[in-house]
Amino acid sequence: LLVFYLLVTYVILQFGWWAYLIYDLNKQILLQKQEIVQLETEHFDAPLLDHGVFTQELDKRFWMVIGEGSIFLLILILGALTIRKTFVKEMALSKMHKNFLLSITHELNSPIASIKLALQTLEKRTLDNEKRNLLVSNALSETSRLASLVDNILLTTKIDDSNFELHTEKIDLSELLQSNLDRSIAPKLSNHHLITKIEKGHFAAVDFLAFASILANLMENAVKYSPEKSTITVSLTSQQNKLIVAVADEGAGISEAEKARIFDKFYRVGNEDTRKTKGTGLGLYITKYLVRAHNGQLIVRDNQPKGTVFEVHINQFQSDATE
Ligand code: ADP
For the residues of 18-57, what is the DSSP string, one character each? Predict the structure, then answer.
């Protein structure tokens, strides 16, 4: 950036210098023209040059240089600002890429190490059934963590290549939410209290798998970023033709400045070296994309007295009332 600022300053100074030179050149041309006219007057008895015409002409050229110069300067400054903006964005992106590589290495290494350890233990020792089952179920849950990580990366590639299609159909969202919570989410929630407030009979045009992924991502974050034994509340309500699915936690919350950035690809709050939670910074990027693909909105706000609420707003199926 320092080199960039130096270059821009140099270009602007050069620009001013050239503007001055052009003005000075014009002045000299006019002076010489005046001398020629004076010589002609002396030798050929031509009419004397009016001094007012000379200053008027010089004034005109001065304002021409100022006018055109200002427009060029403006374009130059706009160009420099655009380059600076792109440059800063590139730097942030490359920092995020570095963060992503660090976190993905962590993310891949830890499940692989625990699966390996579980398999080695199973191979070398004869264990009683209970211990054996525990090792197998741990290895299985690590495998599904790996699979969901790979799924997220694949999904991101599809989204970035505009290669992702939704298959929406009219679905009872109340039922879909409840069954997802009961079957896939609640059994894994050993360290948090789950409260559900799901109004019955709300329909929406939804992609079954995409919606499951939205809920899984929001729930995973609520669990990761709130303390053990705290409460997570999932609700479904309707408001003026909209359905609102809200996931509220009692964690540390997200500052206003970070709220604007957490939906960026690879973005994670804090520093990779000091952060304790696992993640890749892809969850909210994917979630926001999927919600938007449903013509919906993903909103983040503070929970009271503390924590975060993520709200998915989507259109209610119009014939809902008659269902
Ligand atoms: P990941 O969880 O893999 O880091 P996400 O895209 O899901 O990536 O989230 C981006 C960042 O937003 C997280 O790193 C975290 O700092 C912040 N965040 C997301 N959900 C919550 C939450 N419920 N409470 C506090 N911070 C959150």
Answer: HHHHHHHHHHHHHHHHHHHHHHHHHHH-PPPPPHHHHHHH
Query: What is the structure's pLDDT at 113?
Result: 93
**Using the 8-state DSSP alphabet, how is residue 168 labeled?**
-
Residue 232: left (phi > 0), alpha (psi -120 to 50), or beta?
beta
CA nearest ligand 1 atom 19, residue: 221
What three-state secondary structure class fits 276? coil
* Residue bearing the CA closest to ligand 1, atom 14: 268
pTM, entire model:
0.71
pLDDT for 172 equals 95
* Ligand 1 atom closest to Cα of residue 284: 6
Rounded CA-CA distance 101/266 in Å is: 9
Any atom of ligand 1 within 6 Å of the Cβ of 263:
no
Determine the average pLDDT of the residues in 35-51: 71
Query: Could you tell me if the CB of 286 is within 6 A of ligand 1?
Result: no
- At 66, which helix (H) or strand (E)? helix 51-124
CA 268–ligand 1 middle distance (angstroms): 6
